[in-house]
Amino acid sequence: MCLLFSQVISDFDMTLTRFAHNSKRVPTTHNILDNRLLINEDCTKKLLNTYYPIEIDASRSAEEKLPLMVEWWTKVHELLIQQKIRKDTLARAVKESSAMLREGYKVFFDHLAEHQVPLLILSAGVGDVLEEVIRQNHVFHPNVHIISNYMDFDHTVEERKESYVNSFDIVLVKDETMDVPNAILRYITSSRDNK
């Protein structure tokens, strides 16, 4: 059987990564940042205990939840900025985490790379963490392109700057078409081809 792909588009957390292993939840990219190496655990638990029940409350409308979810997201990002996370600490947190890609990931990533099929990962997670998970699993091939939220490290002292880059905070609400991902993929591949 021959499979032909022109492109593969995927989410990351709980799509390319496992949801659970040995009956324990596998951390998402944001959960890895919650590691006590990086962020004050009491602060994140307080935010989670406040906002998560709102997120899963079926009696609340999306319109009612939206401003509260934005408030939660903003507070988490402000907390990230205050922590002055260093890039080397981030790599260590990923290494010490229980993050894991799905079974068969190596065959999947390697097969796409071998056949030069672009893999576009669209994630509302943390791009720096996502890349580190893929890199530490030795499957960060040239065909992998990531659109996500990235931290902006100070390249001279490797400390967090006072801003969190969120220009690619991808949330496609009520858009079930592939128009946006296809347009992004066309842009990325045409930029690569023109270099």
TrEMBL record:
Signal peptide: none annotated. It catalyses: a ribonucleoside 5'-phosphate + H2O = a ribonucleoside + phosphate; CMP + H2O = cytidine + phosphate; N(7)-methyl-GMP + H2O = N(7)-methylguanosine + phosphate. InterPro entries: HAD-like_sf, HAD_sf, Pyrimidine_nucleotidase_eu. One of its GO terms (molecular function) is magnesium ion binding. The keyword Hydrolase applies. It comes from the Eukaryota. Belongs to the pyrimidine 5'-nucleotidase family. This is 5'-nucleotidase, cytosolic IIIB.
